[in-house]
Amino acid sequence: MIRWLRQFGAFWYDFVIGDDWRVAFGVVLALAATYGLHRARLPAWWVVPVVVAMLLPYSLWRATRPAKAVVTPSVPPTP
Amino acid sequence: MSGGALFLAVFLACAVEAVEATTIVLAAGTARDWRSATSGLVAALITLAVLIAALGPALSAVPLHALRLVVGALLLVFGLQWLRKAILRASGYKALHDEAQIYADEIAAARDVPRQRRLAVPDWYAFTLAFKGVVLEGLEVVFIALTFGTNQHNLPLASLAAGAAVVVVAGVGVAVRAPLARVPENSMKFVVGVMLTAFGTFWGAEGADASWPGSDAALPILVASYAILAFGLVALLRRRREPASEVPLSLVGQR
After folding, report:
1. How far is CA A27 from its chain centroid?
2. A74: distance to nearest CA of chain B, Å?
3. Residue B128 near residue B32 (C-beta atoms within 8 A)
4. Which of A15, A61, A64, A68 to probe by mutation at the B interface, max B CB count within 10 Å?
5. How far apart, in whole angstroms, are the C-alpha atoms of residue B18 and residue B170?
């Protein structure tokens, strides 16, 4: 049952959130900021396009950056 | 948004998913058992139809303002996922979606599993493979068709576009009995990614009470701007990849 629930949750996470959770998080923040600016009687239409223009390159940069080299700790010299 | 744009967006999105579902059904039928694969396909289509029948009226009952906020957010996330993948593929950082290879892999995997009869289905594996493939790919189709149709008050046109895409792709798949490797799936995914992102931006911001300058005229400007951004990112990534093509990439968690 627990395994089924875990698979069910993983499916919906993959379906809605996808490969990069930061994108989904950024979208929610952008819409919240849009609402906040509107409440403050400021123009708010520009927020989402600007966030998209920053989020997409950021997510791509993270996906394409060279993998970090694995550093194995050196064995300290025995006294 | 004109009816033509609505039709095109839903048709393209649904066609991409239908190509993937067709590959899975063809693999299940060819490698295992056609009767079981077809039963799986029919069972999946009935499941999706029930989902549409249940969700369609429910979505229509939700106030348009709230619907646009939620749907806009989801479309924006979906659109950015599609666009991200399409850009990675177009710039060479991710392998192009190869239906022929996926078909070969599915066939190889399907041949190794022993045959098992269950619930009057001669081959349970072929049934579940086809069922799962169609339901999983179809869920996105259902979501896109329902949300686009409800938002534009034209659910019949959106359903027609989705149905037409499925019929065309499935018809060609059945006729050739081979994966639809020649469909420009990656280019279609690129276009759909741009469109979903633009519609998601437009509806999401409207749902969050923002007013677009020029009202509906802002939508084509968003589509054009995101297309320029996406092409620019492809060019940038291609240029960056050329000198560093030997470096291993951290493409972790890519589908």
Report:
1. 9
2. 24
3. no
4. A64
5. 7
Distance CA B143, CA B56 (A): 10
pLDDT in tens, B75-118: 899 889 889 988 998 888 877 666 667 767 776 676 666 677 77
Residue A65, Cβ neighbours under 10 Å: how many? 13
Residue with tokens 């997510």: A59
3-class state of residue B248 by DSSP? coil
Contact A68 B250 (CB under 8 A): yes
Closest CA to B121 of B50, B32, B47: B32
Residue B5 CA to residue B78 CA, distance in Å, equals 18
Q: What is the DSSP letter of A20?
A: -
Does A17 contact chain B (CB < 8 Å)?
A: yes
Residues A30, A22 contacting (CB under 8 angstroms): no
- pLDDT tens digits for range A39-73: 999 999 999 999 999 999 999 998 888 766 555 55
What SS3 class is residue A23?
Answer: helix
CA dist B238 and B255 (Å) reads: 20
Instruction: Report the sign of the C-alpha dihedral through residues B18, B79, A10, B249, in that order.
Output: positive
Contacts A16 to B, Cβ<8 Å: 74, 77
H/E element holding B200?
helix B185-207
- Structure tokens, B89: 């593929």
Chain B residues whose CB is inside 8 A of the A49 CB are: 201, 222, 225
pTM above the 0.90 mark? Answer: no
Q: How far is residue B217's CA from residue B194's CA, in Å, rounded to a whole number?
A: 17
- Contact (CB<8Å) A23/B248: no
From residue B234, alpha-carbon distances to A54, A59, B88 in Å are 15, 13, 8
Q: Which two tokens stand for residue A56?
A: 């997409």
B205: which chain A residues are within 8 Å (Cβ-Cβ)? 31, 34, 44-45, 47-48
pLDDT tens figures, B209-218: 898 998 888 8
